[in-house]
Amino acid sequence: MSKEPSSKKVSSNEAPAPHFSMQKIYLKKSNFESPNSASVFGTDWKPETKMDLNLSHSSVDDDGRYEAVISVKVTATNENIVAFSIEVDQAALFLIDGFPDDRLDEALNSACPLIMFPYLRETLDNVLLKAGYPPLMLAPINFDAMYKEKKAAKQAEEKVKNEAKH
Fold first, then answer.
1. Mind listing the domains of the chain with CATH numbers?
2. Sheet arrangement for strand 65-78
3. Which among 70, 84, 97, 158 could disulfide-bond with 34, CB atoms 3.0 to 4.6 Å apart, if both were Cys?
4. What phi and psi values does residue 22 have, to the nearest 5 degrees?
C-alpha cells in the first residue's frame, strides 16, 4: 500500500498537505463464550452488562501508516448467571501524514476510533445473533470527549509533578 499522490505541488520549504485515510479495516481478535446458554435461554432476558473498552495504536512503518485497535470486552449476566462474555479487537490501518504531533495524537485517539466503531458494533451484534442472543446495539461513543478528558488529566498530572519538583 503506497501513499496516494498529492495533487497539490509542494515547494521544498513547504510542509506536505495533511493526509488522513483508512487503508484497511479488519477483525484482529474475537472470543465468545456462553457457558450457561441452556440455563439462560429458559429465563426472562433482563441482562446486566459490563463493558470494558480500550484504545491502542502503533506505527507500522516510516511512511505514515498506523494500526489503530479498539478492544472491547462485554460480559452479560442474567439473574446472576453468566450469559456470555465476548471480546473483540477491531483494527484498522490508517495513512496519516503531514500532521503535527498533537494533531496526530488526536487523530489516532479520536478520529480513528470514531471511524472504526460502527464496524466493532456490527461484529459484536453479528456474533451475539448467531449465538441466539439479541444484539447489544451499543450507543455511539464520543471518542473526542474521551480524548480531551484523558489529555486534560495527563496535563493536570504533569502540572502536579512539576510543582512538586519546585
1. 19-165 (3.10.420.10)
2. 19-33, 81-97, 65-78, 48-59
3. 84
4. -85, 130
